[in-house]
Amino acid sequence: MTEELQRVDNDSPWKEILEAYFPQAMHFFFPQTAALIDWERPYEFLDKEFQQIAREAELGRRYADKLVKVWQLQGEEIWLLIHVEIQATPEDNFAQRMFSYNLRIFDKFAKPAISLAILCDADLKWRPNQYSYNYPDCRLHFRFGTVKLLDYQNRWSELQDSDNPFATVVMAHLKTQQTTKQLLERKVWKFSLIRRLYEQGLQEREIRNLYRFIDWVMILPKGLEAEFWQEFKQFEQELRMSYITTGERIGYERGKEEGKLEGKLEGEQALVLRLLQKRVGDLPQEVQQQIHSLSLEQLEALGEALLDFKAIADLLNWLQTNHKI
């Protein structure tokens, strides 16, 4: 894969989508465990507790792990360790690491954990699900739950018919794997999967959540990305959306995050000016100068506000309110 098709923090979309739709993830991937849980009671993500047991660096590998406290139907507390194995290359000591995390949770917090793994790799034969040793006077057999996303290739019609958000997640993942060298085909599938969100009648928030995941994993080179954005913008306009296009909102959010990684005020200024031009048209030179004089905090506030601008008067009012005109 070329350099331009690499995106930083490839575990982030998985972590975000798991947090946004945790009950749906459990029902989709691990229905037997989901059936034990009282979903009427609140669940809690134990990020601090997980950091305490995940002490060592992972030698450059990327994982998306969530430790979650839930309640059983019988009223007892139980912890779930959800691991998403993102790397394309199978890992020899994966089962040992799953056991190690399970043991650390019990050792540090005296809590048994149900360990579950979502395997995203492309090797059909790699299916770790247990860790064991056996000696004459001592033996151990630790099994953990796994799902292999590659198995859903033969269940495509089932994915298409499902209204569970993780059906879309799996479809996006599989089509990303299958189109590594067919990027035109990837663009077609990316558009198709996003259009499906609208066809399902989802609300804007759900569309944005799933769009963010699809957009992050189905990376396109700059030329195809530009074509995709134009086609998608036209699609939303044809739907006569009353709110600003989902694509523009998420494009701003992604650009803002990448700008923060660079740590450049100039990057934020360029991003805001570019989006303003799209929203309200060409800006007078004096207005551009006023925007250049804004602090980073003010630029971020303007970046959020401009998503609702309809004309240059909205921008001028914002600047006046913020004592810049």
From TrEMBL:
<feature type="domain" description="DUF4351">
    <location>
        <begin position="262"/>
        <end position="319"/>
    </location>
</feature>
<dbReference type="InterPro" id="IPR025587">
    <property type="entry name" value="DUF4351"/>
</dbReference>
<dbReference type="Pfam" id="PF14261">
    <property type="entry name" value="DUF4351"/>
</dbReference>
<protein>
    <recommendedName>
        <fullName>DUF4351 domain-containing protein</fullName>
    </recommendedName>
</protein>
